[in-house]
Amino acid sequence: MKKNMLTIMKKEFARFFGDRRMVFTTILMPGLLIYLIYSFMGAGMAREFMTDDKYVARAYVQDMPEELALLFDPISARWTEVSGPETEDAKAQIRDKEADVLIVFPESFTDRVEEYDVHSGETAPNVEIYYNSTESESVKLRSLLVDILDGYESSMANRFDVNAGEEGYDLATEKDVAGQIFAMLLPVLLMSFMFSGCVAVAPEAIAGEKERGTIATLLVTPMKRSALALGKVISLSCIALLAGLSSFLGTMSALPQMLGGQQNGVNTGVYGISDYLMLLGLILTTVLVMVSAISVISAFAKSIKEASTVVSPLMILVMVISLAPMFGGDGERNPGCFLIPVYNSVLCIHGIFSFSCTAAQVGVTIVMNLLCAGVLSWVLTRLFNSEKVMFSK
Fold first, then answer.
1. CA gap 304, 301 in Å, rounded
2. Are strands 161-162 and 57-62 parallel, antiparallel or unpaired?
3. Cα 188–chain centre separation
4. Helix (H) or strand (E) holding 388
5. What integer pLDDT is reported at residue 263 of this predicted model?
6. Taking 60 as the threshold, does the pLDDT of residue 259 lie above it?
């Protein structure tokens, strides 16, 4: 019994370690992907939550005391003194993301703080800091200023407040809030739905045909291999698109309620028909790219199981790419990024929901996606012409 058991073990080990693709995808790839994903996410989070040393904030101040001006000197900001109607102009600039913060000190702040009695029951002098919660630099600067003022307040025996009540100081509009939330969540969800739909149908249609042996019947029929490849890609894209759209519509319908609806400022009505049309064009062409890529990979696989295993790294890569805008970066400012398939779609989807994408960027992305899908379909045609690939055992 022991000898037979060892024989079976040797047979299984030889089968597994004799297949280099299986060794790589099962043993080496998981650790490598985890390292790459966490390294990417760590670098992105550091870039998102750490202040850029080269960035000079645009800040306004009203009636700043001299002693506090010294405390604010180390901050990388260009301070502008305002008063009267200029204060409202500064708020408007913060609302439009053209400035970062506005600090309003009470008149005769130093004298009022010194005269204030914490046991009197009267309202303490209040320092107002206006900011925009949808602008990362504004939030960072506001947090830094609050820390400095809290430290100064402690040294003054808590004789003044900072943003008392915490209402009315965030100047972000309903449109900004909705854009920030949807731009953060929906690129990841959309790419997940689209890729899941493609994975559900493409390996079965290509590797499944090879595994069952029915691919030979298709290849001997009197049709061009290009027609076969395009027929596979287009039909699979339609099926994957329907699956992705179903999930997308369900998510769009439920997301406002899940996030608290309009009570939390989440309103899908801020998007117009042109935004949804651009989004539809991106979804259609991105699905074409994904189906074409998965079909090419599946053509090399001997079975559906092997195709699904080999496609797994591509899925993780797509997920990592879809997370890129969440951690900041200059992708949307770099025209070259819109020439990179899939990544350009992520940038455009993020830009549409955050109101920062242009029709030209979407147009370039759609054209590049169509070109990429065409090239991959041509590659699939060449693979269909290869008996070594199609009839590999």
1. 7
2. unpaired
3. 6
4. helix 387-390
5. 47
6. no
Residues facing 79 on adjacent strands: 59
* Tokens (6 digits) for 33: 């992907």
10 Å CB burial of residue 204 (0-12, 13-18, 19+) is middle
Contact call for residues 288 and 370 (beta carbons, < 8 A): yes
C-alpha distances out from residue 388 to 202, 236, 292, 299, 392, Å: 21, 24, 20, 11, 6
Q: How many CA atoms lie within 13 A of 373 on its CB side?
A: 23
d(CA 257, CA 75): 40
Residue 288: partners with Cβ closer than 8 Å, 6 or more residues away: 233, 237, 369, 370, 373
Q: Which of 244, 310, 215 is nearest to 25 (CA)?
A: 310
Would you state the structure tokens that stand for residue 286, as one six-digit string?
């991105």
Phi-psi region at 84: left, alpha or beta (left = phi > 0; alpha = psi -120 to 50): left
CB 348 within 8 A of CB 278: yes
Whether the per-residue pLDDT at 246 is higher than 90: the answer is no
Interacting residues of 29 by C-beta distance below 8 A, sequence separation 6+: 312, 313
Domain ranges of the chain: 57-172, 175-390
What whole-number distance in Å separates Cα of residue 322 and Cα of residue 333?
A: 17
Say what the pLDDT of residue 112 is: 84
Nearest by Cα to 256 from 271, 241, 243, 246: 271
357: left (phi > 0), else alpha (psi -120 to 50), else beta?
beta
Q: Return the CA Rg of the chain.
A: 29
Contact indicator for 95, 132 with CB cutoff of 8 Å? yes
Question: Nearest CA to 368 among 288, 276, 263, 277?
Answer: 288
Residue 267 vs residues 4, 112, 154, 188, 270: alpha-carbon distances, Å? 67, 43, 40, 19, 6
Q: What's the CATH class of domain 57-172?
A: alpha beta
> What pTM was computed for the model?
0.71
Instruction: With beta carbons less than 8 A apart as the criterion, state whether 59 and 77 touch.
Output: yes
